[in-house]
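Let's practice the habit of predicting before peeking. Look at the sequence and jot down your guess about where helices and strands might fall. Then scroll down.
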Amino acid sequence: MSFARENILLVGFMGTGKSSVGRRLARKMDFQFVDTDRVVIEEAGMDIAAIFERHGEAHFRELETAALASLAVRKLCVIATGGGIVLSERNRELLRELGFVVCLTASEEVIFERVSRNSQRPLLQNENPRETVSRMLTERRALYEEAANLTLDTSLIEHDEVAEKIASEARRAFSWQAQL
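Done guessing? Here is the structure:
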């Protein structure tokens, strides 16, 4: 597999550690860290919850695609993405074009424990967030796998260890590409 850009992209469900692992990985690789949610927030001038409330999920997804596309000129970045970025076929294509895609996973129980600490998740503001997590995981699992070059379960390992594993695999993928 060859990569057009030497970027590492982190995909996965909310609460799997994309941002936390991404920051550590960027330091380890001496790459720049980019979070697509932050790019959306900066471009929209409001937080994600406000975008959902004022404009709806469909508008947020459009902004998310624009944010991802804007990164096409970047290289040597670790890019953490929002949990739903894989819902769009265009986004899955963009992810693969941008570099080495790593899917972070975790057990449903671990994910729910992690995300229940954050009241700022718009898709979980309902009567049964546990059921929502279960349903969304089921709906998205195959899409994450389709996008990914590597999948790692973060349920039982520390963020630093996840970052080290990704760095090792990415270096191998990028050096293999250089030999072509």
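How did you do? The chain has a mean pLDDT of 90.
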